Amino acid sequence: MREITLSKRLSAAASLVRSGAICADIGTDHAYIPISLVSENRVTHAIASDVNEGPIRIAKENIKSCGLEDKITVTVANGLDGIEKYSPTDILICGMGGELIVKILNASEYIKKQGVRLILQPMTSVKELREYLKNGFNIIEEIIVLDSNKLYQIICAEYDGNKREYTDAELELGKINIAKKEPLFYELHKRLVEKRKKRLNGLMEGGYPTECVETEIKELESII
């Protein structure tokens, strides 16, 4: 059987899948996460879904080479379209922009079903993703992971219908990450502050108003 080794980013996301779950990996690409979870007997069944035929073909080849055709269902689908027929309990969406993840989630009612867990790893627009989630989703875990010198945030959430309030800093960094303050949190915080200061300098040089960015910097600095 072929052995699959997940990247740190994907491994961290996979760690949030519950034991015994039916897992759906949306935008599966090569089906590495489903293969890894099934091989470790972490899940009872997995769905590998992608919108493009190319990744689906590669996913099928990888699954076949691992002898897992009976444990992983492969399907071509646009986002979460038709996902309800597989009844997944844990849904992973990794490696997409945050705004695309929001679009996919917003088009689905299934994600609001009781007991369904979302595991989301946005490549960009983390703030926009949390903006969406605050309107009905309870974020139950957050992880920061360093992979190839890039920092990624992973968000685990479940729908409960309750709206929540977040500050801008909490939308950027995550309430749970702020509370845990693990070592990588400080590096992420540092990078965000540096990015804001660079933007502030650009506004100052161009003669543009800076009050908004200055407020963002003060808020970020106040949580350390």
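Above is the first protein from milestone M3; the second protein from the same milestone is given next.
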Amino acid sequence: MSQVIPLGPGARMLTTREAALRLGVSLRTVQLWVEADILPAARTPGGHRRIPHNAVEALALSTGLGGEPVPRALAQRQAALAAVPETQSAAPASRDAVKGTRPLDVLLVADDTAWQQRCEHALLPFGPSVHMRTAETGYLALLQIGQRVPDLLVTHLDLPGMDGMGMLRTLERCEQMAGMRVLVLSAASDHEIARRGGLPTCAELMRLPVTPEAVAVRVGRHLLGQHAG
């Protein structure tokens, strides 16, 4: 969480909007990354959030986000576009326009690379109708979701670092969660899941152990639902 710190004259800090422009993501995404401690931030005595420039650059370099710093004129134009409410500029409208003509975008979050590969193999029969991305932790999944919201998020709850529950709690605070379907894979009991805060209402639970083929069947149902819509 951000805290109040004095900013010296030599400190190079960015506003959340400047950080969003540099990383090529929405303002709300940067705010969520700050809340999830993906980006460090401070608050000025006036209550404004500031993010260290070197932290933004490190994230851009380590993940491939954004590009070279944008020219001032382009930055100003992007800032004007970013001022439009996300409900007007978010992806769902454009998605609806091409629904049925593009692949189902699936993000699989699991720290077992062998499991990821088996799932990729199980999805091969769908051909180009399904595109699968992978992430090993909740932290990396949030970065990917910030770049592009998947149609279907398939996640284990037990993950290193930020676990699946922490990732879902962060996503619940984002408007993008409303249009995203979630399939949770867990061996935890209902009591244990409730103790950890429960699952979002949009999430479907599959009990582990399950086979990659069983996951592929659920993905196929979502694919059929997309085409039917």
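Note on the second protein: Residues 92-228 form a domain with the Rossmann fold fold (CATH 3.40.50.2300).
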